[in-house]
Amino acid sequence: MNHLIKKTTLLSVLRRSAAAVLILLSVLLLLPERVFAGERTSSLALSDRILRLHILAAGNDTASQEIKLHVRDAILSVVRDALTDVSTAAEAEAALLPLTAEIKAAADSVLAASGVSYRASVEITTEFFPIKQYGSLLLPPGEYRALRILLGEGEGKNWWCMLYPSLCFTEGITASIAEDEKEELRGLLSEDEFDTLFSDKAQKPVFGFRLKDLLKKLKTFFT
After folding, report:
1. Phi-psi label, residue 205: left if phi above 0, alpha if psi -120 to 50, beta otherwise
2. How far is CA 85 from its chain centroid?
3. Rounded Cα gap, residues 138 and 131, in angstroms
4. Dihedral (C-alpha) 169, 173, 176, 177: value to the nearest 10 degrees?
């Protein structure tokens, strides 16, 4: 009798688990995800027009985040003059390549003065970036060229800006971009690219579904 009760209980638990999984699948398939309007094409058009600065902190503790900002200031002081006369993202990248050792030295100097044991690694590379807000400008997700600074293992929150077009040196990075800066960007980008960054349509979310995220959520559920 006890064996029969245990078997019945187990079957009941399995049925409830199966029902829960089916409900979860249904819900996940119905949940819309906010994705960037036109992301499939806009990021490809912009990726070779923009050079970004990407600094990844060693950790998320207060000290690591403050060090990251000090490193940012040191790096910007090194690259500022080199980017004064460039007129394309490719020119900006070419101007920075000879400075990578100097950039690393500036970052390492800040780290040493801060008393931490880790150091910086520096490279110009292609990275995937999610949707990023830059004042009133909204960059689509995609792969972009970037001057990437990794502090230690780079496990903390990052800081980024646009080295080209040169908005890293704007007062109040997160403030709204001034009209004269918008006009400068208009001259550097095609009309479609400019509209992608600033138009109401560009910033309007659309709905979509992603199998990768669904599988990730299912994995989390089962583990």
Report:
1. beta
2. 27
3. 7
4. 20
End-to-end CA gap in the chain: 33
SS3 content of the chain, % helix, strand, coil (to 5): 50, 20, 25
- Return the amino acid letter for 129: F
Residue 81 per-residue DSSP state: G
List pLDDT tens digits, range 15-72. 666 555 555 555 444 444 444 444 444 455 667 788 999 999 999 999 999 999 999 9
Tell the residue number behind the tokens 């801060």, with chain if given.
114
Q: In angstroms, rounded to a whole number, what is the distance separating the alpha carbons of residues 209 and 213? A: 8
- Per the listing, tokens 């780290």 go with 111
- The DSSP code sequence of 130-182 is --EEETTEEEPSEEEEEEEEEETT--S-EEEEEEETT-TTSSSTTSPPPHHHH
